[in-house]
Amino acid sequence: MLIETLENTWITLSDGRRLAARLWLPETSPAPAILEYLPYRKRDGTAPRDETTHTVFAEAGYACIRVDIAGTGDSEGQFDDEYSEQELRDGEEVIAWIAAQDWCDGHVGMIGISWGGFNGLQLAFRQPPALKAVISVASTVDRYADDIHFMGGCLLSDNMNWGSQMFAYLTRPADPDLRKDWREDWLNRLQNVPFSAAVWLRHQVRDSYWQHGSVCEDWSAIQTPVLAITGWADAYVNAPPALVTNLTVPTKAVIGPWEHRYSHISNLDPADFHSEVIGWFDRWLKGQENGAEDLPAYRTYMQEHFNPTAHNCARQGRWIAETTWPSPYVSEKVWHLASGGFSLEPTAGTVAIASPCHIGRESGYFCPGMRIDNELAGDQASDDALSVCFDSEPLQSPLELMGRAQLTFRFSVDQPVAQLAARLCDVSPEGVSQRISYRSLNLCHYRSHEVPEILQPGEIYEADIALNECAHHLREGHVLRLALSTSYWPIVWPTPHSAEVTLHLQDCAIHLPVREVTHEIQAAEPGPAQDFPVLAAEQLRAPSSQSERAVTEDGRMVLETFDDYGKTRDPYHDLIVGSDVRMLYRIHPDDPTTAHFETAWSFSFEREDWQIAISTECRMRCDTQNFYLNRKLRATEGADEIEVLTKEWSETIPRGFL
């Protein structure tokens, strides 16, 4: 099918602001529409990915629209915050505008990964009349529990990392070819770029800020069919099963082996994303009776042990399916914690856990798929050696886990603030430990994420940790390991003082979701990725990725990474864009207040006699009382790099219960 591509179309909102959109229109008109609504710049940021998706969807008879959120890319206005009321209100207007166009038949679907997966669900929650279906990839239903800011009430270092990335992203100018006021607008962006990491860090409990945009607040509000997709290497694994469990409209879940990417461009066993998308939208936007509602509720890749490495490599496992979810084939098995292992009955005694701060060196990047490589979790054996481990006997028969394991425990502490990280691992007979699932808990949140409490040393408390979703097959002869630690750096920011957590074993157990199926239904696996178009950009500098570890003279452990995303010329409008990022994590094993993170982003834009360069630097450190956040921006213009603006900001934020 022939398609028409419109590089830029303006959507005028009710208050006069204009949002920039790129359109792919099929030759058949009117047609149902697919919207992707992001702050990542349609002109260059997502252009390579968009070429692989919207072109294919348009050829399948859909009008596709990629819209820049206000204040980003080429759109007018001021960006304020992720998933803000402005963003969602604007999104409702965009959907109404699309439905009213003569090339649209009035039916609109939304698709997106991460940010676009979030706001697809959030807009469905608001029930705009024209929105008829959603495909949400790598998203969340609870912004506090399962995003990039907090985990179990613990601060994720990615709160600062992601805030730093958004800081850099938001300094980029609109394209002068589309905006005559680009320079004035750019200066306004530079002067007023939000300090997002500080905003998020001030909201340390699950308050109304996080409830906004969390669709779990009212499952019944979503009345459009949802296809939820993610991958086991991704950080966002909990939403698809939760959506299938709780929504009353047609909902399906797919979890493959993939990282934080659309599955057809995954580095880990790429799959046929296009057929999944087109099949879902054909059913709910075109009304085709194709059986999409009859697909199994939950299709997933049941992983098996392989030699884990930080580098991208193929997974091992098989595709399975569950007709309904929760599944009647998954039952809870309780293993009680005993000294060094497990017992079928509760045991007496205590176990003390006091970990060095640098445990987590093999944890991998929090959200794999954001870097180029060197980001996956490796062999956990070295981290296990620094943890308190509970090992099963070598399995006499295979054990299959599917769902969320839950650790229930009684504990006491010697500090008023403490945390516990739990990892389930599959250990081979050779001693190679592969992480199956993990989760951390700020023990001050033992009762509530809304109202945490300072812990009283010596007092005994009860808590539980629901580990992240998993689907994992342990082979005969392998060992299931539960590894517990009081630190998990660099994923989790450490507590102000090194703490010792004592488990009271009488009331400690791991509740395992064990899957037992004598006959599996047809898995309906996605299949291998089909051929798709690729943006014919001219590569001027090749991408590359590095990751190095070091130990300073005073014993601090350092992880330094560099990702050069390359430099390319776009074939449609000749814009040349280059970017790279450096990150550094540093901590001393004996001192949690030495936790330190810094990052530096660089961007360059050019076309003929126009050049722009932007560099940003961000840093976060702490002491026992406060977090200290710093950021710096430098922007230049022209071949001579004439300085346009240099500015620095600093924030001091009390630690509270962190």
UniProtKB/TrEMBL annotation:
Entry-linked Gene3D superfamilies: alpha-amino acid ester hydrolase ( Helical cap domain), alpha/beta hydrolase, Galactose-binding domain-like
Molecular function GO terms recorded: hydrolase activity
Keywords of this entry: Hydrolase
Residues covered by the Xaa-Pro dipeptidyl-peptidase C-terminal domain: 278-534
Pfam families, A to Z: Peptidase_S15 (PF02129), PepX_C (PF08530)
SUPFAM superfamilies in alphabetical order: alpha/beta-Hydrolases, Galactose-binding domain-like
Family matches, as InterPro entries: AB_hydrolase_fold, CocE/Ser_esterase, Galactose-bd-like_sf, Xaa-Pro-like_dom, Xaa-Pro_dipept_C, Xaa-Pro_dipeptidyl-ppase/CocE
NCBIfam families (UniProt xref): CocE_NonD
Name assigned to this protein: CocE/NonD family hydrolase
